[in-house]
Amino acid sequence: MVTCYLRYVIDPHKLEAFEAYGKLWIRLVEKFGGKHHGYFMPSEGVSNVALAMFSFPSLAAYEDYRKRSFADPECQAAFAMNEKERFIISYERSFFRPVFEDDQGVKRAP
Asked: Which domain of life is it from (predicted)?
């Protein structure tokens, strides 16, 4: 499993637009076989950073999602939202391997 971590720098005056965008992507990621863990909006402290995390069974599955999303009309509409509203200033994408506890309480090996 691979988890994609996105850190967004957003326009703090356009939080509602970014939140609507995030809600769209939760469903869209899951449409393509991913598990979305949510968007995290600014609360206390910094007012222009938001986070998102979602997982796919493998990096290959993530890459397939990315390829298919560029051809999907719903994804294109979501991309267009930001092109029109410009609520995302920049973002960075990183990938992580999650560690979970199994049923016996033993951590999984890498």
From this structure: Bacteria
